[in-house]
Amino acid sequence: MMLTFRTLSMLMMLGIALYGCGGGGSDSASETPAPPSAPPAGDQGDSGDEPTDEPPTQNTPIAAARLLNQASFGATPEDIVAVVDLGQEAWIDEQIDLSPSYHMPLVEPYADNEDFWRSYRISAWWHRALYAPDQLRQRVAFALSEIMVVSEFNGVLADDPEALTAYYDLLVEHAFGSYRELLEAVTLSPAMGVYLSMLGNEKPDEERNIRPDENYAREVMQLFSIGLVELNLDGTEKLDAEQQPIPSYDQTVIKGFAHVFTGWHFSGTTAQTWYRWWENFNLFDPMGAVDEYHDSNEKQLFSGVILPANQTAEQDLALALDALASHSNVAPFISKQLIQKLVTSNPSPAYVERIANVFLDNGSGEQGDLATVVKAILLDEEAQSGHINAPTTFGKVREPIIRAAHMWRAFNLTYVGERIDFGWPEYFFGQAPVASPSVFNFYRPDYSPIKLESETGLLAPELQIATDSTMTNTVNFFAWYGLWRTFSGDPSDADITEDDDMFIDITEEVTLVEQDGSEALLAHLNLVLTAGALNDEAIDLLVDAYEADEYAEPEKRIANLIFLIMSSPQYAIQR
Amino acid sequence: MNKRQFLKVMFGTSLGLSSYSALGKQLSLVNAAAKSTSLDGYKALVCIFLYGGNDSYNMLIPTDINDYQTYAGVRQNLAIERESLLSLNTVSNLPYNVGVPSYMSPLAELFTQGRLAFINNVGPLVEPTTKANIQADSANLPPQLFSHNDQQKLWETSGANLNDLAGWAGRMADLITDTSANTISTNISLAGNNIMQTGNIIQPYSMTAEGAPMFGALNPEEDWNSDRISIFDQLIALDNHALGNSYKSIMNRARTNALLVNQALDTTPALQTEFGTDSLSQELAMTANLIAARDTLGMNRQVFFIGFGGWDTHDRQMQDHPVLLSRLSAAMASFNSAMNELGLSDAVTTFTASDFGRTLTSNGDGTDHGWGGHQLVMGGAVNGGRLFGQLPALELNSNDDFGDGRMIPTTSCEEYSAQLARWFGLSESQVSEIFPTLSRFDQSNIDFI
Q1: Please, which residues bridge with residue A369 across strands?
Q2: Is the dihedral of CA A527, A529, A530, A534 positive or negative?
Q3: How big is the CA angle at A317 (ends A311 and A318), to the nearest 5 degrees?
Q4: 8 A C-beta contact, residue A96 and residue A371
Q5: Inter-chain CB proximity B247 and A573 less than 8 Å
Q6: Residues of A whose CB is below 8 A from B149
């Protein structure tokens, strides 16, 4: 461990020098040659094997830390070494190939506990965010959980942490699969069926003025697939002759889809048991079709798409999801949101278009291949060099819960007890996994504080949850769980007296500062936490602060620096 | 985090009581500024936003047998039993008599006392709109009808343009706030960021029912933080990222406001009125406490925003909707008592807003997104005991029905909000400035306050 760490210390000095000079070329000083970058799919659908003019991705510690902040729950010294060692593309490929770490195995053992509640599924989420080897998959699953939203805030799901875990695992499973298959899995998930009331939705009963439920029909279009208005491939809105946006669908289309989504209930339900839901109650297996409750009339979807009469529920569903997945909006709508969740809140239209093209064709003629889309997002030239080309606008506000995970990853969380007992994250962060106030997630992808939007036109979606209270509480988290909860050396020396107390371990940082001094410490923190976003003045300021506090123990002084950096905009804005 | 830890965290936020001299100086400046405005006395507006879309056609229900049968025929298994309705005796000239479900009895009582009014069939409109216009394709309809976030936005801006960035209470605060006064925002949110209170200049200050948390390690009242605060301020000044600047401004606003708010709350005697333990009640209790602290804070005009979610009753409506209305009724009644206790009943007006009304037709066990819906307004200044605006016909395919029982609004959000702004003390020219297309509407039968 120590050898790796020292190697890293040397690498990061190098990385900071490169960051300062603007990068752009290959890293000639690196021991391993930089691998060729993934060629972005060209407009003509170039084969993935052809050489391109794109500069190769950098193979520096800074570039590695930037990638890890975009592609994991935060950079760690070990992962930076791994990325530098492998190169970015190979690291991504390796991540994609790792087998999924599901959450249910961490939840199920507790299901019979008397105090079984949401804290157990949140523990599993922390555990995977901090320790899962398949970080990229976990990070993409979390992004998907904020696009295809199911929430605990529902009369049925609130009492069922396992059902919510099963839904999350479905996102983990499909994170690198095809979008069309993901859409179907989400649509037939019983948790989604309960949340957006497709489960039990039945064909019209005109005598009783009962018509199909429009809930899922509306939100699957508005939020999970195509959005409200027609989009160009680059994510910008199409405009009509009066320069107005063009709605993607109208009430007729919603009614069409509402009729499609009739006849589905808990797995195993029959016409006889349709209303006796408790006989089939099952929040794990995909919903099953009951054709007696499915509307068999012709259904009009988008212009040109008409589903013929007398199809089964399954046939209608398959054609309707095909129509959604092949709508021209899907590629820019989903691609842009994934870019926003991982890399930058304000991607250029050209960036969105490059990714949308990959969405349309992964190079093998397949559409909606999420693994290739994610890889292209991360290796795109804008992701690679946005911090240099647009240093004051590129990037995104890190989600507060991801900031917390980063602290615990970077400084090895140490806790007593058998699981991470931190079950109410929204108190500090204004967010928690699968617990959005509504299907509209904690924040909208087009949110911006009014002054930012009116003065710069930029979006900052994650700031929708940055209220005065959550801003304060998030900073307090870094005080209560960082600044004032550190230890170094032997964990038994730490003041761990309660079952659920949590500490960060800064033994390595203490060793580093004792051996190499405070400048090396700052270089290390600047790499691991901010991927080089602290400028020379900021580093000098913090070095001076460290040196000025000469009577305090190194551990306290290091903890103070970690707190200051993690509370600062230099850290909070991932760039 | 378990409960014990949670409490530890909560108490960790309470403010040490020391060194208020600088604060006192600020407050006397504030008071001087307040006296110089033309807005006399104290007034507050309290918005309760019913997130999701309240099915208000199960809130005001026909009571006479023929009218009730029309209602019940349309609503089928969602109809509330006639025997359980509490009649609202009203002098208004209505197409049918109405009552409210029994679980709204606290509000029925306030209606009888003249403290509560209903405003019928309100919703976003670009211009007065009829079914004939719509059928002739000559109606200018609001964008993205029936979509939650878009219709919330139109309510909160009380306009018809989704590109507007500022809400009506934010624009109002921009006009009336003395920005030289060093105090908290005119607009206080207990529901986080919202458009209604967002102005081009004035931003809402967000708190929670628990109060305003203090920065533990950046609290200037603790001497041992002073070096850290100094370094932190120098550090954040070295960043010039555009998103970072927004982050800094929220942080700096939180740092100053929390001090002011906590000092005022700590020195204000607790109210005797009891509130429920649900979050709506607790947020109204905090609102009442902040109103009680108005003089210490130097406020003479305030707008509070409270979010109450769960109204998107696509399913389980018969189980969920009564609980929501019952909670709303109890919480509003407690708040009314608290304002009586403060002697501010005439100075504080509480009103509801919601994404939209819902379909009169059922989808089996719930309703879908509609358009117009009824709203509640409560307070001593309200012309209570009456219904304002037109009650829509409840037959399907009537001239009020856009389709499936989605009601075409007969009063616009703009008329509704403008009337509240007038009461708040804005001049007609200020009202026109905030609501630029108000003159398209006849504004008759809108004198609810």
Answers
A1: A178
A2: negative
A3: 95
A4: yes
A5: yes
A6: 440, 444
Helix (H) or strand (E) holding B336: helix B317-342
Question: Is A392 within 8 Å of B240 when comparing Cβ atoms?
Answer: yes
- Residues in A touching B370 (Cβ below 8 Å): none
CA distance linking residue A190 with residue A504, whole number of Å: 39
Orientation of helix A135-145 relative to helix A161-174, angle to 10°:
120
Cβ separation of A452 and B245 shorter than 8 Å? yes
> pLDDT of A68-86, one tens digit each?
999 999 999 999 999 999 9
From CA A487, how far away is CA A555, in angstroms rounded? 7
Check CB contact of A105 with chain B, cutoff 8 Å.
Answer: no
Are A570 and B239 inside 8 Å of each other by CB?
yes
Q: Give the integer Cα–Cα distance in Å for A243 and A241.
A: 5
- Cβ neighbourhood burial of A478 (10 Å; 0-12, 13-18, 19+): buried
From the list B235, B251, B310, which residue is nearest A564 (CB)? B235
Rounded to whole angstroms, the Cα distance separating B417 from B158 reads: 7
Other CB atoms within a 10 A radius of the CB of residue B60 amount to 23
pLDDT in tens, A273-331: 999 999 999 999 999 999 999 999 999 998 789 999 999 999 999 999 999 999 999 99
Q: By the 8 A CB rule, do B351 and B82 touch? A: no
Full DSSP string of A360-374: H--SSS-S-BHHHHH
Which of the four pLDDT bands, split at 50, 70 and 90, describes residue A13?
A: low
Residue A302 in contact with residue A249, Cβ under 8 Å?
yes
Q: Which residue is associated with the tokens 């930012």?
A: A452
Q: Give contacts of A393 with chain B, Cβ < 8 Å.
A: 241-243
> How many separate helices (H) and strands (E) can be counted in chain A?
26, 9
Q: Residue A496 burial (CB < 10 Å; 0-12/13-18/19+)?
A: middle
Structure tokens at B93: 């000239």
- 8 Å CB contact between A188 and A264: yes
Neighbours of B244 (CB within 10 A): 23
SS3 label, residue A484 = coil
What pLDDT score was predicted for residue B12? Answer: 34
Please check whether residue B397 touches A, CB under 8 A. no
d(CA B131, CA B133): 5
Interface of A with B in 209-228 (CB under 8 A): 209-215, 218, 222, 228
Residue A455 CB contacts under 8 Å (≥ 6 apart), including other chains: none
SS3 A513: helix
Structure letter (DSSP) for residue A189: -
User: What is the end-to-end Cα distance of chain B in Å, rounded?
Assistant: 47
CA dist A111 and A160 (Å) reads 10
| Contacts with B, A 316-375, CB within 8 Å | 345
At CB < 8 A and 24+ separation, what contacts does A566-569 make?
A566/A403, A566/A407, A566/A478, A566/A482, A566/A529, A567/A475, A567/A478, A567/B218, A567/B232, A568/B232, A568/B235, A568/B236, A568/B239, A569/B236, A569/B239, A569/B241, A569/B243, A569/B244, A569/B245, A569/B247, A569/B248
CA angle A237, A239, A245 (to 5 degrees): 70
CB atoms within 10 A of CB B249: 14
Q: Over chain B (449 residues), what is each successive 10-residue block's mean pLDDT?
A: 37 32 39 50 98 98 97 96 93 86 98 97 98 95 96 95 94 90 91 96 94 94 94 98 97 92 94 98 98 96 97 96 98 98 98 98 96 98 95 96 97 98 96 96 93
Query: Rounded to an integer, what distance in angstroms lies between the CA atom of residue A534 and that of residue A263?
Result: 57
In a 13 Å sphere around the CA of B379, the CA atoms on its Cβ side amount to: 24
